[in-house]
Amino acid sequence: MDDELPGAIGTSASLALRLGQAVFSVASLLFMCVGVEFYAYTSFCFLVTIKGLTIPWSLTLAIVDVFSVFVKRPSRQVQIVFIIVIGDWVLSFLSLAAACSTASVADFMITEGGAFFCGRKLCSRFQLSAAMAFLSWCLSIASALFNLWLLPSLY
Amino acid sequence: MDDELPGAIGTSASLALRLGQAVFSVASLLFMCVGVEFYAYTSFCFLVTIKGLTIPWSLTLAIVDVFSVFVKRPSRQVQIVFIIVIGDWVLSFLSLAAACSTASVADFMITEGGAFFCGRKLCSRFQLSAAMAFLSWCLSIASALFNLWLLPSLY
Predict the structure, then answer these.
(1) Residue A98: closest CA among chain B residues belongs to which residue?
(2) Any alpha helices (H) in B34-119, and if so which ranges?
(3) What mean pLDDT value characterizes chain A?
(4) Which residues contact B82 (CB under 8 A, 6 or more apart)?
(5) B5-9, B66-70, B97-101: lowest mean pLDDT where?
(6) Which domain holds residue B38?
(7) A2 is a domain residue
């Protein structure tokens, strides 16, 4: 395959996207979890669950990309790419949903609750977590689009 | 064009999807707006804004479909379908974001605020509005997928 689509699975751009997703997801998870009782709020639990799904998915595909870039390019099978595309799309929708839920609840806590639901420091941690989740979603949808674009050329 | 893709722009399935989107969006807007001071909450304003964009978009494309089904099929130009695909995707992401924000804030109001933020009747109206927004999003993403699927066959 000479006409390589940058960003599709098995390229160095894809590796960069996957690593970015994993880094932002981990950052989002750390801002949300470390030393905070996040599990009192449904939206925050949802974010943690989705990030717990996204991080292994991105890291697995990053390993596939590392193998493909540095060792040996495996032949792309259409079934495998199809599964990757489906997984990417489902996870990116869930990521967007989780990021929006977190952002809106954090905003609601700040505007309505004052210091009742969360102190200044804690509230800004929730906001940062939502921002990291949005950045992770942007990279995730980019990966999903590139892989979807690759799919018809394999048939 | 004999091999008609059901659900793509200009078919009766597309007309049904567009009308469904408009109906659910209007229902969501009515549950949210009528007699309620929704503008105190950012998420609810976001939902109303997005629904205010979605309804004219769906109705316009429904009119195009009606014309195409009942009067005369116009030739599909690739630029126009491309614009429709872009608009569908952007609006469906925004719809999902608005639905998630509304749902999570409504849930947060109920679990944390009790009757402080909204009474039993008002809270269930916010929940119904979020549910209608989700249904509208499901139909919207279906339209977006069908039109995206149509796009490569036009090049």
Answers:
(1) B100
(2) 42-66, 78-108
(3) 87
(4) B151
(5) B5-9
(6) 12-149
(7) no
